[in-house]
Structure of Cyclic pyranopterin monophosphate synthase:
Amino acid sequence: MTGGGKLSHLDAAGHAVMVDVSDKPTTARQAVARGRVSMRAETLEMILSGGMPKGDVLAVSRIAGIMAAKKTADLIPLCHPLPLSSVRVGLVVAQDGAGIDIEAYVGTAGPTGVEMEALTAVSVAALTLYDMCKAVDRGMTIEAIYLERKSGGRSGLYERPGAGERSPGS
């Protein structure tokens, strides 16, 4: 903490530091993030039929997202390592049929939130999907990665405006 008990990533000299959360209460915290990978219809059909040369794209991407959530503190500077109690990553065909929607849910009981873990899970799941399909569709796009909802902690509930209108499942 810096002067006045305010949490900050800057110390008194203005240098970047990891925030000291040792005085924060342990509470249940959850976060949901979403994203999308858009692609050609032929690419989506290959994924769904199991015809992608690198194997089961959805299963590998799901596992990659879960693993990434667990490694977020190793990837994002100044992010706290957290004991995650639950991580779920869902990948489903977008309602418009033009890609795959990704949703990550992350939960913990801790002194700080899991928004970065949920966002990292979606990002890595999307990158893995791209990597596994790029040989047949280099024009895919990774789009709209965002925090949909978070709860717990001092700041309470955040819900993105329009949350729930796009529901890829989990």
